[in-house]
Amino acid sequence: MGENMALTVEKGRPEKSEGRSKKELAVYDYLDKLGISYERVDHPEAHTMEDCAVIEEAFSARVCKNLFLTNSKHSFYYLLMMPGEKVFKTAELSKAIGCGHLSFADGEEMERVLGCTPGSASVFGLMHDKEDLVELLVDKDLMKEEYLCAHPCHNIATLKLRTKDIFTKFLKATKHYKTEVSLKGEG
């Protein structure tokens, strides 16, 4: 995504649903039903944190790095939300949560459990976790932010919400809770 690209911040859901995935539209429906207000930016596919720099600039808010991890048996999953500038260290997180072996879940698992494809994982995928297979892990540094931004299960848009709305109203509705972790993430 070009760094000089100007993005337009819109309030709420898109007026037209053409070109939008069912999963993305389901996120808007869910947030609207809960009465959670949000702003939206549409953009070309954003696959990396570098792609998200222009989005952060448009919103003046932090886009979270979201990593979908699994235990060695692929029977339980973790969605880790952390600041984009931190380096992810598997050993550091494993020690913090007391899980011996963590690896990245594959795209098929992400689709089945979170309803997201690689590059679009976000906290909004928890609305699809009906079997309660995912534990949400949140780096404590994110809790200091007034707003957080994440993809609505499709990486052609990004939403900006109040942090407290994500971690209270949204999580309560999805019947999930967060576990805070303190990651140094030093290279």
Automatic annotation (TrEMBL):
| Molecular function terms, GO-annotated | aminoacyl-tRNA deacylase activity
Q: Where is the composition biased (Basic and acidic residues)?
A: 10-20
Q: Which Gene3D superfamilies match?
A: YbaK/aminoacyl-tRNA synthetase-associated domain (3.90.960.10)
Q: Which residues cross the membrane?
A: none
Q: Which residues form the YbaK/aminoacyl-tRNA synthetase-associated domain?
A: 43-166
Region annotation (Disordered) ranges? 1-20
> Could you tell me which InterPro entries the record lists for this protein?
ProX/PRXD1, YbaK/aa-tRNA-synt-asso_dom_sf, YbaK/aa-tRNA-synth-assoc-dom
Q: Which Pfam families match?
A: tRNA_edit (PF04073)
Q: Which PANTHER family would you find in this protein's record?
A: PROLYL-TRNA SYNTHETASE ASSOCIATED DOMAIN-CONTAINING PROTEIN 1-RELATED, YBAK DOMAIN-CONTAINING PROTEIN
- What family is it from? Belongs to the PRORSD1 family.
Q: What is this protein called?
A: YbaK/aminoacyl-tRNA synthetase-associated domain-containing protein
